[in-house]
Batch of 2 targets.
Target 1
Amino acid sequence: MIHISLKRLLLKKEVSFIVREIMALLGTPVFVQDSEGRVLLGNAGEGCFKNRHPIKLGERVIGWVNGGERALVLASLLSYLATVELEKKAIGREALEKYKEITLLYDITEKLTASLNPKDVAQLVVDQAKRLIRADYISVMLINEDTGMLEVVAVSGEGGCYTDVIEALTGIKGNVVHTGKPEIINDILSDSRYVRKAIGVSSLMCVPLKVKDRVIGLIIIGSRERINYTAEDMKLLSALAFQAAADIENARLYDSLKETFLTTIHTLAETIEKRDPYTGGHTKRVMNYSLAIGSELGLSEAELERLQLAAVLHDIGKIGIRDGILLKKRKLSFKEFEEIKMHTIYAEQILNHIKNLKKIIPGVKHHHERFDGKGYPEGLQGDGIDVIARIIAVADAFDAMTTDRPYRKSLGLAVALEELRKNAGTQFDPDVVKAFMKAYESEKLLSKEADTDAKHINSG
Amino acid sequence: MIHISLKRLLLKKEVSFIVREIMALLGTPVFVQDSEGRVLLGNAGEGCFKNRHPIKLGERVIGWVNGGERALVLASLLSYLATVELEKKAIGREALEKYKEITLLYDITEKLTASLNPKDVAQLVVDQAKRLIRADYISVMLINEDTGMLEVVAVSGEGGCYTDVIEALTGIKGNVVHTGKPEIINDILSDSRYVRKAIGVSSLMCVPLKVKDRVIGLIIIGSRERINYTAEDMKLLSALAFQAAADIENARLYDSLKETFLTTIHTLAETIEKRDPYTGGHTKRVMNYSLAIGSELGLSEAELERLQLAAVLHDIGKIGIRDGILLKKRKLSFKEFEEIKMHTIYAEQILNHIKNLKKIIPGVKHHHERFDGKGYPEGLQGDGIDVIARIIAVADAFDAMTTDRPYRKSLGLAVALEELRKNAGTQFDPDVVKAFMKAYESEKLLSKEADTDAKHINSG
């Protein structure tokens, strides 16, 4: 509530002058008291005070004017001035709140739209909420459309133990999802819908993330201590939720398309490979080895994206090689091998049709070049070969050596690693081999194999 | 500027009471005039008025109190009340403006984030600007990153003649792009940077669309008549531009990824087809015929999307068929044909790996079913066959008949159309054939052939 101090009002230069002049005009003794009886102006012991006129702010008495009957004018004046002051402050407070809200809206628009990754957007929402509202626990949960369950996608506070939480649409959260209305629960223990969970919060706020009229998730804010979340807190959180919902939804659509894209080209590439039944899974493994090497070499996000696409599509040109040669189990003749070599050229021809994939042509076309210049199709040498191609060359060779082929069994890990080491500087870029060894030793390669996600794909 | 009426102030009940009481207390004749000399209170002819005290609002005199020396208190009181009133109004106006801005921000967030199509977002920006600001001409121009030119993507007013405008970064627009600062030019003819163009505007406003610190385009607003665009207009337009830039950029990224996706699967599908040199372009034609039929049948956007993807990938299963059979120029044996039929099953196996493409499996798998149940692989009948598959069946057959094949020449348009008609109800869905004929007659099929755009692809 807004407080108006009668004392401070009387200290204003103009008001002080006017009030003293009126007191002088009245001619009889007058004194002004605040609501607690303290004398603010005039001398209470000066004479007899027939009347006690209240100074009112709405229904509330904030002080008294003591004096004769005519001293009423002073009480009226002070009541009026206090009322106007209150109105001014109320409007001012509203303007300030609106100003804060606008600043917030611009700020979150700028931050949240900067990413098209749903997890990143959700994390930004959590960070923003933390800045705005007192809380020990903040999380963004989204409804998984396939399962209908709520999943935590970003969280702050209380350690990482609450990520990967999956919940049914029950209790308070279920209620907010179903009604689409935000809720403040300042005393959670007395709420009948409360379900005892690991999160030790006493007060919480739960706001729906809505796209048009569809609830896609929630922002949940909790305090360990019992505090009073206010309507103002709720308004700020709702403003954040409004923008966040749209941005998370767009990020999800983008992510879904990205996943579809990567899975599709990956599946098609694997299928092309499948004409050779011994190399199933080759594409995926080469992609994972390549990304591990790329991270080790400190490639940028954009380079890793190029690397991932090039690794997935590195053998796409084999689509143009006839079965009779591609699937041949015995040693190829010179002429047949010349035909096999053509897959690097075919790949270029295919990718040339796809504007946003032209950038990966060097990585794909040159993955059979050798560091010493004795490779194909162009006999490029050293740094003249795109780093993407130099990485794929190592990943491809390692996978070829460690899997069974039509004409021989797997060479085994030890032999394959030794071969890479032996050929570093001749067939392979020594830095790339070093990065591969480092990734191999830190077991990144193994963990990568389980990871089929499309992390680095982006449109160009 | 905010106006304070002394007359209206004196009419307020509380003020009127206080002023009259003070006048009574003064005991000598007093009257109050406004700045133009009109008497607002008291009687000017009543006696002698030694003093004339100004009622001041800042430096401005808004009236006079005429009376004795002590009447100064009344002038002071009215000055103070007028000042407080002015402050209240000023804060109120600010709050109202902020309120409008907030409403606008929520409104545009809701509208602009609802689409991930850059042209739709730009059109919404134009519509919003029209609602907000007086203008005869509004356009959104984006910088084409490949050409460095400004291109109109949405426009309102003065007919459609200004779409497809492409401009270099010169003149006023070039300036706004280079400085990143908005400009108001209320008299365009006197601006030295003005380049005479078809748009007959006299006053204009030009605001950059900025993503982080990068200018990606402009919003331009113009009036035929010379008017004064104000700082307030600029502020509204800038708020719109702020949100619009982020949304347009995200829509462009989405669109670019969509295009890459479609071009990639299309190119890969065509390449798979290319193992049979006689059918190059088959995939694209089947897609175009299918979409023409789908539009004719009034399919929803979501259905058209499914249709487009299914048409592009309808023969993807051929990847699993050996060259020896797929490329055979003579008639296939029974056993060989049984192998060819497997491509519908292979397609299902491939697409089953791609979560968001599972929805197109019925359209792909059943494009060789017949309306009378005599097709393959499952012998489905009538409406039991997905409408997508019934459409692709017609499109596929028409293209097969009108192109040269290894074992025969094209049958020609007339024969192909007659074949479709003859087999409507047996091999083909008669409604689909009817829709094809209608599309054929309205020449939609021909225009479609030039259109390689990815209009209906969306992630699932």
Target 2
Amino acid sequence: MEDRQELHPKVEKSFELIGKKWTGLIIYVLMSGPKRFSELSEAIPALSRRLLTERVKELEEHGIVIREVIADRPIRSEYSLTQKGIELGNILGPISKWAESWVHD
Amino acid sequence: MEDRQELHPKVEKSFELIGKKWTGLIIYVLMSGPKRFSELSEAIPALSRRLLTERVKELEEHGIVIREVIADRPIRSEYSLTQKGIELGNILGPISKWAESWVHD
């Protein structure tokens, strides 16, 4: 019981993070590999570029996403999942399956 | 790609549901078996009875929790997870583990 009580704030934080609109989907899209901002934006057309910027920044702050600058011509940046992000993404997969079976439109 | 786009609204709905403050924890507590309202309330002391009532009602509406009236003396009711709820609970377990490893207070 004590352990569970102690875990509460961490678990609650995680649920809140995952529950923020679009966060789960951004992680889900990045599971298929690094993406440029424009590719992320195209993958989730209903999400505005302004809100995508905000969500990606939050995910960077949580250490789930990293932005890497690629020394290419022209210089460009790519977003990818950290180890923490990949492990979270692996958990979100089963949620998609659950949604498919149980959630009705 | 088409399939993923179609799945989006369902997945998004699920993430939003799980992300609502306390929802995940209520499901987590019910994974250990049916609980009376007072037991649920005691298990999550930081959650007010008013908000617990609201969240449990939402979970009932989503078919995740059912309230059963027990023909005992005095008559009492118990909350338990449906099959849909149990399957969701099974997914939430790994999120707790992830939180324990990666989320800092």
